[in-house]
Amino acid sequence: MFQRVGKSEASVIISVDGTRVTARAGDTVAAALLAAGLTSTRTTPISGTPRAPYCMMGVCFECLVTIDDVGNRQGCLIPVSEGMRVDTQKGKREAGR
Amino acid sequence: MSAVTSLDDHYDVAVIGAGPAGLAAATVTATAGLSTVVLDDNPAPGGQVWRAVTTTPVQDRRVLGDDYWKGQEIVQAFQASGAKHALGAAVWSLSREREIGVSFGGGARMLEARRVVIASGALERPFPIPGWTLPGVMSVGGAQTLLKASGLVPGGRVVLAGAGPLLWLFAHQMLQAGGQIHAILDTSDRAGWRAALKHAMPFVTSPYLVKGLKLMAGVRRRVRLLTGVTSLAAGGRNKVEAVIFRQGSEGGQRMAADMLLLHQGVVPNVNLAMAAGVEHHWDAQQLCFVPVLDTFGGTGIEGVAIAGDGAGIAGAEAAVERGRLAGIAAVRALKGDTGKLPDETASRKVLAKYDGARAFLDTLYRPSRGFRIPAGDTIVCRCEEVTAQQVIDNVRIGCTGPNQLKSFLRCGMGPCQGRMCGLTVTELIAETRGVTPAEIGYYRLRPPVKPIALAELASMPKTESDVTAVVRI
């Protein structure tokens, strides 16, 4: 649950699990997901429990997502770009995915 | 710069990290005419303390405050210095020969530098409490980054818990931004005040005091503060729903919450320096590993220096001066005293002022044992979901240290490479075995210190000998 403050920048459209999401230019992927209201952004490969971004500075790796078909990207370090496809990761990765 | 091919093979100086120390060091060396590159994995310069200072949507200066906006001046000086800056460049390796492995714009490459300044800064100390992996639980620093970089303010019932200057600074910034804080749970130990008083004199004369007290008083007027918190847990099924805590020896209390923001100080980010072979020692005052350095930040490795909070926590202002000193040393080593240099004495004077005040803060905000050394089912290693009890059990059956623990439990072997559990594991093993953390040591870190795709490695330029080394003739 986050609210936007400050001057509004140009918006960037990305897709998250196939759903259209409007982000603010300059957002990282992790920030855009949280701003869009996602509570959890992945489930763990060990127990499958939900997780969400924790440190937002590239340290904790909780924000791992698949971006444009490349898995395990650090969402908190990568800025959104128009048309970007973000997929949340569920549990263990599978071959070919 | 945006592509890995835009980087040169050789630089006089490579600076790793574009926070206060890295920017200051690069400004000195580039101004003196040395070819300088700054590599940083963030999308904009400023590090964490000045995160997004050139791009933040939060333009009302009262929200993030003067100390934040001071960063603008340092960034501008850096941009005018002629140093190159690779944004979003992840350094995954540094060798004794000062060869640097970097991923940048989808490609990877090696580059060499005659001098390297590691300015990889600090990270928040792990805060392993029950439920700290639940969505809705975040570090205070993480929430602050969302505010600085994206203008995002946490909503609902937001509870801040822990101790340390950053917690109070963020509480202030969040209120200034129009946010609401449900409560602050202060975990600082009351005994800390008594112990800290003997270090009070240098603190009283330091720039920290007036700023800090004013800020805390302002927050206290507007937020419910619960002090003397001795135990803390996040409760909830798939997200945080409540904070369960105790004050002193009183009974447990439960507070409904939508977000829990945790913080108990910062510690040096040691991964790259340790992997490069820089010697570190256990600092019993700051309760973390710090590198062994000379007065210019020089390490035992020829030509490699460390500046800023990665050299031991001292704050942003001190980081700038330590960056300048590392820059000065690099210029002197490569150009003699002929280069254009800032005043070394001025830097040392500022440093002394901040260093003197640090002992007070370190003692006052020393995190309590119970919040550093967890027990039972509390998760220690978030990546591999290893609990405190599992660590203790394995130590009891003969596991002697953090590196052996990897084979026993995969603890510290997930994607974060021990960043979120390293200190907890060291202290937990030390306590279980009844020895000092210094004796236990830290994870043995190895490159790559950031995950790198095989495709990136495979796409690196190859020499004839690289090819003949693997091709059957």
In short:
The complex is a heterodimer of chains A (97) and B (473). With 97 residues, chain A is mainly beta.
Q: What descriptive keywords fit this protein?
A:
heterodimer, A: 97 residues, mainly beta, Ubiquitin-like (UB roll), 7-stranded mixed β-sheet, 8 strands, globular, B: 473 residues, alpha/beta, 38% helix
Description:
The complex is a heterodimer of chains A (97) and B (473). Chain A is mainly β. Chain A has one helix spanning 29-35, and strands at residues 2-4, 11-16, 19-24, 42-43, 50-51, 64-67, 70-74, 85-90. Chain A has one domain: Ubiquitin-like (UB roll) (Roll). Chain A has 1 helix and 8 strands; from the N terminus they run βββαβββββ. The longest helix of chain A has 7 residues, at 29-35. With 473 residues, chain B is α/β, with parallel strands linked by helices. Chain B is 38% helix and 22% strand. In chain B, the strands form 6 sheets. In chain B, strands 1, 2, 3, 4, 5, 6 and 20 form a 7-stranded mixed β-sheet that branches. In chain B, strands 8-16-10-11-12 form a 5-stranded parallel β-sheet. The radius of gyration of chain B is 22 Å and the shape is globular. Chain B starts with 9 loop residues before the first strand and ends with a helix. β1 of chain A pairs antiparallel with β9 of chain B, so a sheet runs across the interface.
